[in-house]
Amino acid sequence: MNDSAGSQTATALYNAIKDQDVSAVLPKLSPVIQIDASEKLVDAANLLWKHDLLAIPVYHEDENKYIGYFDMRDILRALLHVQQKEPTSVPEEGGNDVAAEEEEEAELEEEAQEEVIRQTMQDLSLHENGTEKTLASMAERRRAYCCRQDDSLEHLCTLLAQSDCRRVLIYPDGITQGRCSDMVSRSTLMKYLASHVSTTHLQETLGEAGLDYRKKVVSTHENATAKQAFELILKQKLYGIAVVDDEGGLVGNTSARDIKLVALHHYDGTTNAFDLDILSFLAGVRQEDSPSTGKKAKYPACNVRESSTVGHVLCLLAKTGYHRVFVTNDYMEPVGVISEQDILRFLLSKGKIQLSHDLPKLAE
Question: Which among 85, 238, 222, 245 has a CA at the least distance from the CA of 230?
Fold first, then answer.
């Protein structure tokens, strides 16, 4: 199918957003977790940790606007920088009351985590060319996009289709400044589309639909160290990359969740953890319980075949929360990748809506 041709699948997806406004996709959740630009880096890090988030918007009171986001990758960058330092330790105290000991141990562990966060973020604020970094200066690296509840859903999708826009802050009708009322991410749109478009309308394969998945796959070798893998993630400004074997076959992947688990593993006092190969490292950290739910995290397969349907890809993105899935050939070699951003660009362009010329076709 040529690049200018339409797609029945893209049309079905576009019809789900046509004539809808932003309010149709607003998540029924608690208020947006945010932080003031005047706060310290350690406060932002603790907020991410406490609420199990990947990023939080940073609000500048004097400017009466959001200046950007503090991201979990900022903590990863700090952890990689200090990974060779001795971990913070908390003295253990004896006692005969088992319940009291367990409660005290939990309190000490929490104190240790907070102390490591404090020391780590303090180091982060100072290590770049000896210049002190503030929460505001770090947040400004990631632009905060905004729109209103009464804006069209197409407009929201167009914003989220841009490479530097993973989430959009939402204001009530008629308001364009001050504190936002909601926030919508690309993942929110994937769930909306998956629940509003029947799979019977999404049966075109990737090739039949003209969804351009053949692009360079960012990957690391299975024998690469965890440190090398996460440095690549930071360099490419991604959350997830492919892990391949000697034959180039896909054997694993990192995900956004792993970045937080890196911090978890750092807190347990393990030395030289980043020197482990990436698969051994991930196998270890993924055994950690979720601090929010106490349940074991699940890591479903994140690859599809070239013969897969667009509907299958969309459902996989929506159900897993992954930001991208890898496309593999019959030999399990990753030959492409489809991101949430690709899905949005696909429905806009193939659904007969033209994107601006400054949006490249390659996935981020």
Answer: 238
Question: Following CA atoms 284, 288, 290, 293 in sequence, which dihedral angle do they give, to the nearest 10 degrees?
Answer: 140
- 165 HSE (CA, 13 A, CB side): 20
Give the span between the Cα atoms of 17 and 348, in whole angstroms. 10
Q: Is the CA virtual torsion 346, 350, 352, 357 positive or negative?
A: positive
Beta bridge partners of 232: none
What are the pLDDT digits (tens) for 159-210? 999 999 999 999 998 787 899 999 999 999 999 999 999 999 999 999 999 9
- Residue 335 is which amino acid? V
Written as one letter, the residue type at 264 is L
* SS3 of the chain: CCCCCCCHHHHHHHHHHCCCEHHHHCCCCCCCCCEECCCCHHHHHHHHHHHCCCEEEEEECCCCEEEEEEEHHHHHHHHHHHCCCCCCCCCCCCCCCHHHHHHHHHHHHHHHHHHHHHHHHHHHHHHCCCCCCCHHHHHCCCCCEEEECCCEHHHHHHHHCCCCCCEEEEECCCCCCCCCCEEEEHHHHHHHHHHHCCHHHCCCEHHHHCCCCCCCCCEEECCCEHHHHHHHHHHHCCCCCEEECCCCCEEEECCHHHHHHHHHHHHCCCCCHHHCEHHHHHHHHCCCECCCCCCECCCCCCEEECCCEHHHHHHHHHHHCCCEEEEECCCCCEEEEEEHHHHHHHHHHCCCCCCCCCCCCCCC
In which order are the strands placed within the sheet that holds 55-60? 35-36, 55-60, 65-71
Q: How far apart are CA 286 and CA 276, in angstroms?
A: 14
Predicted model pTM: 0.81
pLDDT tens-digit readout, 225-266? 988 998 999 899 888 899 999 999 999 998 777 776 766 555
